[in-house]
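From the thread on structure requests for the teaching lab: each student submitted one protein with a one-line request. Submission from student K.M.:

"Model Putative diguanylate cyclase (GGDEF) domain protein from Shimwellia blattae, tokens only."
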Amino acid sequence: MSLYKKLVIGGCLFTAVIFCGNVYVTQENAREQYHNQLSAHAQDTATALGLSLTANIDDPVTTELMVNAIFDSGYFYRIRVTDIRTHQVLIERNNVPPSANVPGWFVRLVHLDPGRGEATVMRGWTQAAQVEVISHPMFALSRLWHGLLASFLLLSGCSLVFMLLTALVLRGLLRPLDFIVEQATAISRREFLTLPTLPRTPELRRVVEATNMMVTGLKARFSEQASRIETLHEEAYSDSLTGLKNRRAFDIRLQSWLSDDERQSGYLLLLRVQDLVGLNQRLGGARTDKLLQAVAVLLNELQAQYLNNKGVLARIRGGEFAIIAPPVIAQQMDNLTTALSRQLESLYATGLSDVSPAACFARVAFSHGDTPQTVLMQADQALTRAETGTQFTAEPTTTREDNNSDDHHHWLNRLERVLGQESFELFSQPVYQCNKQKIILHRKILARIKTDNGEIIPAGRFMPWVHHLGLSQRMDIVMLRQTLKAMEKGTDHLALSISGESVADDASINALLQPLKQARHLANRLTLELDENALPPPERITVLVHKLKALGCGLGIQHFGGRFHLIGNLPQWGLAWLKVDSGFIRNIDQEEDKRLFIEATYWATRQINLPLIAERVETEGELQVLEDIGLYGAMGRYFNDASTFTQS
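Reply posted by the TA:
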């Protein structure tokens, strides 16, 4: 029961007790007083009437006139004159005056006895008659009743005003308690809030100061832990000169990319600065470092322009740089390599290098199942041919199939048909809790396309065309509708990936959430996921999280690990979970640096109670290490491959 309800009940009980006590004390005294007055009134009337009748007792007409005159002039219940000798009633008048709107229950409760008076009428020295007068308590009852009503209204009004004033005062005094509740709730959402204005009440001030100190301590502890992990991450996986990823990070991401059957294919672009040793000798180390930094800048710009900041850019050794490009259509890669050739010319023209061309590069395509060694060897061979021919680039040694399956119009028609019919094939992969009980936390929904001949096309083949044709938002909405429709048949908790384009602005978010608004009863069993590389600005994520929570839906991040500086924003987002990229999970039982990184990440997320889930666990040893660290969940081929989604 709330404090305000208790206050109202207490005020009502207080009013009732005071009222009952007041009625008992006041009414008892008033009843005694009125009884005495009524008795005196009846006795005085009887005495006066007895004296008046002494001279006229033998005249019945006069006696009746005198009795009637007195009876009609006051509130009397009865006046009776009785012959003393014969006990015969000479004259009697009775009347029951109106009750003056006094309730019968009140009359019975007060039980006010009427006043009674007697007098003797003399005939000479002989007693002739007896006069009996009984007053009616109507007037006294009316006064008592109106006094009771006035007392009740006064006490009720005062109590009501008191409760209202007390409620207003308490609302102001207890407002800090509401904020303390909000602080505790925010901590559970992995947010840290402090109350800047302290209350004036000393007791509440101490409570608020203590909670502010606790929240500030938690926030500082998390920030310190996040800063340490970010430093550790940069030292282990970043190149200090260019700020790009180093060879260790490149190897991890390339291995992860090649083993991910959802990506299926991609490109590796390998670039090497020409005559790096000679440049150091001729131009000096400082100018050579500027050249390497300039190469890093132009590669960053090209990655942002042609790959939407997706993929991996790294400096793998000395003057060698590499880009792991996501599965995009060949035309985009052609545009990128053309722009890169043009940019490399400017390095020689501006004097950053005295070698022309300043750098050479090669591009090779890869697909799911290739080994990192094979891909790197092909790229290195192509790069050697480019350097031998003194040209910017070399054509890939592997040919790309340019058949009808990769035709622009063919894919446009196929995707338009699937989107229009909402006929994606739903596959799922379970996510298990990291323990021996094999408890399923949720199922990750995956998209497939079935051709007319029954072939299942994985996402890695059609997603590049989805992005190229600008169909990402439509696909997200269709997949959300199909997922919600499938959820009607079961009770599983599901996770569904969405693209960054669907949350880029308010209009896109509102369009995406429209199916959820029409199925609010299912929203609490669904969590949307964003790829780390597709995250919008932090303020957009905050807006998205609030809108999703209003519907009962959550938001998670998958493939986490490449943009580790985002960990500082995790407390304010209130995510459902964080899924670590498989590159940091592969062979974690054999590589100590990965274990240290995951341990540090786990302890940072534990400070804000953020569940950490490992992606693509493939061996018993990997799972054992993750369980020893304390991760919340895991998914991967060790448990199950993706299969056709069926509700349980």
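TA comment: DSSP finds 20 helices and 19 strands in the chain. The first strand starts at residue 76 and ends at 83.
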